[in-house]
Amino acid sequence: MGLSTKYEPKIVTGDAGYVLEDVPHLSDYISNLPTYPNPLQDNPAYSVVKQYFVNVDDTVAQKIVVHKTSPRGIHLRRAGPRQKVYFESDEVHACIVTCGGLCPGLNTVIREIVCGLNYMYGVKRILGIEGGYKGFYARNTIPLTPKVVNDIHKRGGTILGTSRGGHDTSKIVDSIQDRGINQVYIIGGDGTQKGASVIYEEIKRRGLKVAVAGIPKTIDNDIPVIDKSFGFDTAVEEAQRAINAAHVEAESVENGIGVVKLMGRYSGFIAMYATLASRDVDCCLIPESPFYLEGPGGLFEYMEKRLKENGHMIIVMAEGAGQELLSESMHTMDQQDASGNKLLQDVGLWISESIKDHFTKKRKMIINLKYIDPTYMIRAVPGNASDNVYCTLLAHSVVHGAFAGYTGFTVGPVNGRHAYIPFHRVTEKQNKVVITDRMWARLLSSTNQPSFLKPKDITVSKREKEPPTQLLDGENCTDDRKPVSKELVT
Ligand SMILES: Nc1ncnc2c1ncn2[C@@H]1O[C@H](COP(=O)(O)OP(=O)(O)O)[C@@H](O)[C@H]1O
Ligand SMILES: O=P(O)(O)OC[C@H]1O[C@](O)(COP(=O)(O)O)[C@@H](O)[C@@H]1O
Ligand SMILES: [Mg+2]
Question: Which atom of ligand 2 is nearest to the CA of 189?
Answer without folding.
Answer: 14
